Amino acid sequence: MSVIGIVCEFNPFHNGHKYLIDSVKQNPEDTVVAVMSGNFVQRCSPAVFTKKTRTRAALLNGVDIVLELPFLYACATAEIFAENAVRILSSFGCDSIAFGTESAGAGQLENTARVLLDKDFDLKVKKCLEQGCSYPYARQKALAEYEGMCDLSTPNNILAAEYVKAVIKNGFDMKIMPVKRVGAGYNDNFAVDGFASATYIRNLIENGENAFEYFPENCRDIYSSAQEKGEIISYKKYELAVLAILRSRLGSGFQNIAYADGGLENRLTDAVINALSLEEIYDRMKTKRYTHSRVRRAVLSAAAGVTKEDLLIKAPYCRLLGFRTEREKIMGSLARASFLPFVSSAADISATDENARRVFALETVSGNIYNTAMQNIAKCNNEMTYFPEKMK
């Protein structure tokens, strides 16, 4: 039996995710553990469906246990995102990690990851950054000086290389299982043979169009029910919520906010004062040096109160979002052997250390922003009463 880890957002769960799981779960005895972003995803926007809805969809389609990637890491850089996700999976006993790539194989990814960890590579990147280049450009330029590297111009390959880097850097005993992506590309605004990108699917949902053909059949009722109940994000409400929070914080400033340094904190203040929408804030802050991704992280960090010191905290717990009951015994064994505390309630977290409580406090803040932005506004502080999903 193998315990296979997957890092995911399932935003929403679609046919491509099902393909990945089916590709790696060859033995019925294998256990698939997904560490899934909660209320927010890496592009620094709220997930289209709640974590409960996405957990149910995953458990119906081959995932046995769903753990949460906390907000602090879910919206972080690819390096922080990957390292903490892999830390949670390794802690929970995963002997393998599976992920999608555009084309790179395990050997090429390992070679690329070792270069990314090399001090000389860091110096090359820093030299380019000092010339005013953006980090993605600087990294790609530095990689061009090495042979046999994988293409890091696509999100899937970037994260794949970061997963492998995290495994090597931390000495985790995990097998690398890359799976070539099928169908449409990461950001393609079209479908191929029933496979569509999550971006395309979200656009369909946001525009009120039918996206069911891109979901496994057993997910369709789950998504329909969520939509009927208003348990789906409203991006207009989200924008208003974030604008209100940012404006309320102008008096205290944004001096210690994560990702907002090197003058970006001043650009953030000016943008909040003058902008009439989130997109306008992003546009006012963006420069040649600061990418749209960096700007979005700074803005969301300012809204949630994430500080530079918070980014130093390593994932402090494994939080359970849901599981299949036939894997409960295995889950118990994995939880007892975990080098991180295994938690399933707010009470469990309150009994841990200061770092864990801080990470969960940020989870609660992000949850309150998310709940305010749902089509039907949800109650405040429901992170405190979240109970893991059980499925037979």
Could you walk me through the main structural features you see in this protein, from its secondary elements to its overall organization?
The structure is a single chain. Strands 1, 2, 3, 4, 5, 8, 9 and 10 form an 8-stranded mixed beta sheet that branches. Strands 6-7 form a two-stranded antiparallel sheet. The longest helix has 19 residues. With 392 residues, it is α/β, with parallel strands linked by helices. The protein is built from 17 helices and 10 strands. It has one domain: HUPs (Rossmann fold, 3-Layer(aba) Sandwich). Helix 5 crosses helix 8, helix 6 crosses helix 7 and helix 13 packs across helix 14. The radius of gyration is 20 Å and the shape is globular.
